[in-house]
Amino acid sequence: MEEGHDELARPRGVEARGDPGQQLAFADRIRAILAEAIPGSTAELRGSLAAGDADVYSDIDLGWVVPDEQFGEALGCVSTALASVAPLVSFRSDPDNQRSPYLRRLFVRFAGLPLLWRLDLEVWAASVACDPAAGDDPSARGDEWCPYESALMNALGAIKQVLRGRPEVAQDGLTRGFHRVGADPRLDLSPRDRVIELADLVAAARPHLRTFASDITTAAVQELR
Q: What highest taxon heads this organism's lineage (predicted)?
């Protein structure tokens, strides 16, 4: 289910963060589009947006509950529905449940929006909605996954954690990112320089991710003084 949309045309100068009010309005547009795509479904806020404590570094967490008999139809139309809100740059499915008949966890990046506005969307069949046991099925695991893009997400997450005053969490994320691409971080570098080094490694190894890597490098330079 993973799709390689990483080099779609996108505006340059993409910001890392945006206005929380605009982010909430964008999330509400997604919710409305999803509910319209599958009659009888509901799309709700999750995480910090739902709790009302989102900050300028928060991503967008949504849960979409669809009738069981329309789960397959929902999976078939979700990328098109999301693209009607804003063009997609990347659309990926968590490998842990790629073959599940009840659940998908999708990670979506949109063109022209703040880098931190990634959408984390859980699609559930209504009969098991939000049941942790439904997501714990080893037989549902797939193998479509790009560790290099995940490494870039670790780099972006590290920027977020440094800005939130959590340098240890940032370091853990960067270490995971380097390990995803078979490398070790240089601990003598600053968090900013480690982010840039990781982005450079990914850009060199995976040309289709160069735009994303460049955006992360720019964010590191601008945000991590």
A: Bacteria
Domain that holds residue 25: 20-140
Q: How far apart are CA 189 and CA 63, in angstroms?
A: 38
d(CA 215, CA 14): 7
Instruction: Let me know whether 213 and 176 are in one domain.
Output: yes
Given a cut of 60, whether residue 57 has pLDDT beyond it is yes
Does residue 107 surpass a pLDDT of 70?
Answer: yes
Q: How far apart are CA 168 and CA 175, in angstroms?
A: 11
Cα separation of 60 and 38, whole Å? Answer: 21
Query: Are the C-beta atoms of residues 173 and 126 closer than 8 Å to each other?
Result: no
Confidence bin at 145 (pLDDT 50/70/90): very high
Structure tokens belonging to residue 25: 């309005």
Its pTM stands at 0.90
Average pLDDT, stretch 171-188? 96
> DSSP alpha helices (H): ranges in the chain?
20-37, 47-51, 71-83, 147-163, 167-180, 191-205, 210-223
Answer whether residue 105 is part of any domain.
yes
Query: Coil, strand, or helix at residue 206?
Result: coil
* Residue 1 confidence (pLDDT) above 80: no
What is the tally of structural domains in the chain?
2
Instruction: Give the CA radius of gyration of the chain.
Output: 17
